[in-house]
User: Which sequence fits this backbone?
């Protein structure tokens, strides 16, 4: 948290440890200083690092202590959402958010809006542009 900020810390986990999960974690933690990533969670035999940027990668198939009051964002392929949701629910998590195309776009736009604002530039989305009818 930034010095002097008011509010509560938002604890979260990201399920997954590859590109989608890392991007999701970055969007969540960079856009809000009160979001604190506790760990990346995995449950597969893929080649995963022990930590990513100083954040632990925890294999939830092993006995581990997790804060089930934290939110979990599923940063994997959509085909894995139902499995991840089932496993996380069985562990006691209730705030589970699959990062589908819509949620990813929402997080990405918020992330880039903040980045552009920090540079003093507006972020103009394609949907906000006037249509070009071939006129110059």
Assistant:
């Amino acid at each position: 948290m930034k010095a002097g900020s008011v509010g509560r810390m938002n604890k979260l986990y990201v399920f997954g440890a590859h590109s989608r999960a890392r991007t999701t974690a970055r969007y969540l933690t960079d856009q809000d200083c009160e979001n604190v990533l506790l760990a990346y969670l995995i449950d597969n035999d893929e080649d995963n690092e022990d930590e990513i940027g100083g954040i632990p990668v925890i294999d939830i198939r092993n006995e581990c202590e997790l804060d089930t009051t934290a939110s979990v964002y599923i940063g994997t392929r959509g085909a894995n959402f139902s499995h991840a949701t089932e496993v996380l629910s069985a562990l006691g998590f209730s705030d589970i958010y699959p990062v589908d195309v819509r949620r990813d776009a929402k997080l990405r736009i918020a992330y880039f809006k903040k980045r552009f604002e920090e540079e003093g530039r507006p972020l103009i989305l394609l949907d906000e542009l006037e249509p070009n009818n071939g006129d110059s």
